[in-house]
Amino acid sequence: MNKKMIINGGRRLAGDVTIGGAKNSTVALIPATILADTPVRFDSVPDIADVYNLQIILNSMNVKSKFQHSILDVDPTEIKEAALPSTAIKSLRASYYFMGALLGRFGRATVTFPGGDNIGPRPIDQHIKGFKALGAEVHEENDTIYITTGINGLHGARIFLDMVSVGATINIILAAVKAPGQTIIENAAREPEIIDLATFLNNMGAKVRGAGTDVIRIEGVLELNSRATHTIIPDRIEAGTYLSLAAAVGDGIMIHNIIPEHLESFTSKMIEMGVDLQIDGDQIYVPKTTQITPISIKTSPYPGFATDLQQPITPVLMLADGESKILDTIYPKRVRHIVELRRLGADIASAVEGVITVNQSTNLVGSVVQAAEIRAGAALMIAGMMADGQTVIKAADHILRGYDRVVWKLTQLGADVEIIAEDN
Ligand SMILES: CC(=O)N[C@H]1[C@@H](OP(=O)(O)OP(=O)(O)OC[C@H]2O[C@@H](n3ccc(=O)[nH]c3=O)[C@H](O)[C@@H]2O)O[C@H](CO)[C@@H](O)[C@@H]1O
Ligand SMILES: C=C(OP(=O)(O)O)C(=O)O
């Protein structure tokens, strides 16, 4: 963690921006490649740090990959079981998908506990419950999870998730896709990224039915053969971030490559705030916004309001003429942006766990702040654009985990922004 973002704020932004492929699809699709019996190609791959770290993990298993101009080629045909590099594993949350993928491929997996955003406790008990139901034995020792199967290997099973979990749903799909028999996941997560993964697997011959609903049925298959390039869906969280930026400091911004249906809970809130969103096919135009109405937001699993957009929308709420409230039911401790926004002059607080109160704060002034995690970083980035003077966001590496070519995109919109090493 040694980069900082420097923003000279107070400028109005305008122009066009194109959304990249979804981080949360990409980070599941890349581990899924090791289940394939052929090379695989993805298009619309975002240029984010998580991709490079996943490539390091693949490489440690002799899975060669090449990433150029949004295309990622992965060849898993010469894969070898090997110890996975713990620094790369710790650099992102989704490295835990190698548990399900390795289990599906080899019937065993040894993976260090994953890293990822520090947004409060992130247990993986439901992943483990799923692996056990499929016939695996799991034990944890010294920050490492050891998953094994007996001579009979994995088998299909019925699994009811105690809570809706994106990660557990995906990990169980990865483990079950080649397991003999039928697996049924009940109370499954319904995120579009899960549908994207199922589409990728099904196009290779998998039988994953019902992705996007809360019951997913999987018939195990023997082989997975890639025949076509898989184009990754657009990142709805990146889109929501640019929609927020446009409402906060835009003088007319057109955002391309959006699936509006993936953002309905978000766009309906923006409309409620008085932002005149003009939705046209796969693009949304945000004209200059002059008046914002305070609102209440409650995060919940998809199709509810995404926890990952709770922070990016916060700077827009700071422009509303009254008090807004956010209740984060997924990650009540996801409040690490608050103390930093206050440094810029924001009137924002969280007196009760999970509840954030935002009051009108129109006179922000640049300061030195810290991005504790990716979306806290996004909130600070937008607030830094709103503030007069210079804002320095330390630990900007978090932003680079998930925002595709962010400096270039912001510069195209007229922002004065750069990312440099922290010791400069
Ligand atoms: C790589 C990726 O896709 N990350 C997303 C994914 O994270 P991730 O997959 O880690 O989040 P989950 O959907 O699993 O978590 C949802 C809730 O369930 C809880 N839980 C989860 C699993 C478990 O075994 N036990 C348990 O208690 C979590 O603590 C959390 O409160 O979904 C989150 C919630 O939409 C998003 O913020 C992340 O951006
Ligand atoms: C929490 C997030 O990511 P991860 O699950 O990869 O840490 C996020 O994208 O907001």
From TrEMBL:
UniProt: phosphoenolpyruvate binding residues: K23, N24
Q: What is its EC number?
A: 2.5.1.7
Query: Record's Pfam families?
Result: EPSP_synthase
Positions of the catalytic residues: D117 (proton donor)
Q: Under which main EC class is this enzyme filed?
A: transferase
Q: In which pathway does it act?
A: Cell wall biogenesis; peptidoglycan biosynthesis
Kindly state which keywords UniProt assigns to this record, in alphabetical order.
Cell cycle, Cell division, Cell shape, Cell wall biogenesis/degradation, Cytoplasm, Peptidoglycan synthesis, Transferase
Q: Which family does it belong to?
A: Belongs to the EPSP synthase family. MurA subfamily.
Return the NCBIfam families for the record: murA, PRK09369.1, PRK12830.1
Query: What are the GO MF terms of this UniProt record?
Result: UDP-N-acetylglucosamine 1-carboxyvinyltransferase activity
Q: Which CDD domains match?
A: UdpNAET
Q: Which Gene3D superfamilies match?
A: Enolpyruvate transferase domain
Species of origin: Periweissella beninensis
Annotated ranges, domain Enolpyruvate transferase: 8-407
Coiled coil stretches, renumbered: none
Localization annotation = Cytoplasm
Q: Which residues bind UDP-N-acetyl-alpha-D-glucosamine?
A: R93, R122, P123, I124, D125, Q126, D308, I330
Purpose of the protein? Cell wall formation. Adds enolpyruvyl to UDP-N-acetylglucosamine.
Reactions performed catalytically: phosphoenolpyruvate + UDP-N-acetyl-alpha-D-glucosamine = UDP-N-acetyl-3-O-(1-carboxyvinyl)-alpha-D-glucosamine + phosphate
Query: Has the keyword Cell membrane been applied to this entry?
Result: no
What's the protein called, per UniProt? UDP-N-acetylglucosamine 1-carboxyvinyltransferase
